[in-house]
Structures are given as C-alpha cells and as structure tokens.
Amino acid sequence: MSQRTQHIAIYGKGGIGKSTTTSNIAAALAEAGYRVVQIGCDPKSDSTVTLRGGNYLPTVLDSTRDGGRVRLEDISVVGFKGVLCVEAGGPVPGVGCAGRGINAAITLLQELRLFEDFKPDVVLYDVLGDVVCGGFAVPIREGLTDRVYVVSSSDFMAIYAANNLFKAINKYAPSGGARLGGVIANGLVAPYARALVDDFAGQTGTRVVEYVPRSPVVAQAELYGQTVIEASPASAHAELYRALARAVLGDVEAVIPKPLSVNDLRNWARKWGDLILKDEQIVAPATAVLSAA
Ligand code: ADP
Ligand code: MG
Fold first, then answer.
1. pLDDT tens readout for residues 234-266
2. What dihedral do alpha carbons 110, 127, 249, 252 form, nearest 10°?
3. Among 25, 218, 226, 244, which is best to mutate for testing ligand 1, by the most ligand atoms less than 8 A from CB?
4. 6-260: CATH, from 3.40.50.300, 3.40.50.1260, 3.40.50.20, 2.60.40.1120
5. Ligand 2: distance of its center to the CA of 107 in Å?
6. Is 44 noted as a catalytic residue in this protein?
7. What are residue 127's DSSP bridge partners?
8. Digit-coded pLDDT (tens) for 155-165
9. Nearest residue by C-alpha to atom 16 in ligand 1
10. CA of 88, nearest ligand number
11. What is the three-class DSSP state of 59?
12. How far, in Å, CA of 271 to CA of 274, rounded?
C-alpha cells in the first residue's frame, strides 16, 4: 500500500506488553489492508502467538541449528489477515548470548529475500529491551529500522528500561541508527500513571503516542489465543489499538531522545514518589482518561 517498506521496532522491559501491543498493531494494520511481517526478537519466542491461533512455529535459531538448508516456509506462518509471523528464537537456556537470535534471523530473512519477495508495507520487530546488549541493539544500530517505539507502564522498572533504551538510541542515532517515534503507555491503572509517563516523556524530549489502560478485554483475548482486534473487534480497546497503529505508521517526526543520567532519573523518581502521595491534583487528568477508555 505504501511506497516503501517501513521497519519499526518496539522495545520494552519483559512482561510490559510488547508482544500484546505489537500483535494488536499488526492485526490492526492487516485489517486495514497492509501487508505486515512481525518478527519476534525475544528469546521467549511467543511474540506472534495470538496472531497464529497457537499454530506451532519453529524459531529461526532452532531451524538453523542443524545446519541444513532452511526455507521461508520452515520458519514462518501466515497468521491473522495474512500477517507473516517469524520468531527469531533464543539460545539453549544457559548457553550463549540471548541476542544472537536476532542477528541470525535478520541475516537469514535477508538471504531468503523475504523483504524483496513478500514486499511488506510494514515489518514490526518485537524486541526485548531490559538489556540493550549487542544482539538486542541490532535493530537500532545498523540502520535496519526506521523508527523505534518503547512500551512502558508507570512502574519505575519500565521507565528505567525505557531510559536505557534511550541511551542506546542516543548513542547510535548520530551514525545512522534508528530514531525514537515515541512512548506507548501500556497497562495504566494508577490514577497518576498517565501524568507520570507524560512527564518522563517530556523530560527525555519525546512524547506518548497512545495510552492503553489495563483491561480484562486484553486478558480475555489472550486466553482465547487471539489479539483484541480479532477477539473483540468492536471494543474500545480495539479502537485504541487501531488509533495506535495509525499513529505508529503515520508521518511521525522521530527524535533522538535525551536520556536522564542515573542521578537525574533517581531524583525524578523521588519527586514522583513524593507527588503521588501528596498532590491530589495529579490524579485528576489520569482518572478522566481511565473512565473515558
Ligand atoms: P512482553 O511481550 O513485553 O513480555 P506481553 O505482551 O507478553 O509482554 O504481556 C504480558 C502480560 O500482560 C500478558 O499476559 C498480557 O495479556 C498482559 N497485558 C499486556 N498489556 C495489557 C493490558 N493493556 N491490559 C491487560 N493485560 C495486559
Ligand atoms: Mg513478548
């Protein structure tokens, strides 16, 4: 549909909702007629599970391990509305670097001419972002992706992981690495959650592209083994994911974020620690958003 394939990476701390968010974006884009590839770059290898109805999908690393020739159909499954699903995979537990699968997967997919032959409009990379070690930084580093988004809740550990990702983007962007499209605020529950994530985004020179409250609709879809787009297409959350998908694909101005130093991040967190107990003002806008969603 678009002129050129857009490569978009979605990072975030483990368990923060990367795969849920990425799969719903993929499903929303596919539903709107785009050709989509989703590549799970997390050793957990469950990125695309809600797009493929639980169908078995060998990982790239597992398939290449025995050294034989691998075909695209061995390491991909066509899922919901034609989304092509790939899982990079991880090392044998306890052995080797967990980021190795990403390199192996991307190299193999390039060799198999996936991007030329499948001609996707969008390739989504779902990348574990706790540790931005060599392997996990590949999508940022080598001009592979056009834009990066980070999924974060209002929990400090999620913010901390986002700030570390910003450090990696900041380091590689001047030499042709990817820039940041923004923050996807997910799993918001606390009344102050929205204001806190907004403030972090403001402090680091970026913005929040969408706010996704915590919802049983998401949990239910996961239990059905589906995305929200498939399981509850008429729900408010499905609309949120469609809006997010449009925003992620749209003509956003990506930036080089300004990560906080260890000390500044600590001081910022402490300030919020005081605020959330003291200042009733801070809860007002977030409460309004949660009840509207
Ligand atoms: P990650 O890929 O970052 O490790 P997942 O996408 O697998 O995280 O999400 C972890 C868990 O949180 C899953 O059980 C998922 O259903 C749940 N989850 C994620 N986002 C939401 C949300 N907005 N509301 C409710 N549950 C959510
Ligand atoms: Mg995941």
1. 999 999 999 999 999 986 789 999 999 999 999
2. -110
3. 218
4. 3.40.50.300
5. 21
6. yes
7. 11, 41
8. 999 999 999 99
9. 219
10. 2
11. coil
12. 5
Q: Which of 258, 263, 269 is CA-nearest to residue 203?
A: 258
Distances (CA, A) of 36 to 54, 59, 70, 215, 241: 18, 18, 21, 26, 15
The Cα–Cα gap between 186 and 188 comes to: 6
Q: Where are the domains of the chain?
A: 6-260, 261-293
CB 178 within 8 A of CB 169: yes
Question: Which residue minimizes the CA distance to atom 19 of ligand 1?
Answer: 17
| Whether 159 contacts 152, CB under 8 Å | yes
- Structure-token pair, residue 127: 């990348």
Condensed to tens digits (0 to 9), the pLDDT of residues 191-243 reads 999 999 999 999 999 999 999 999 999 999 999 999 999 999 999 999 999 99
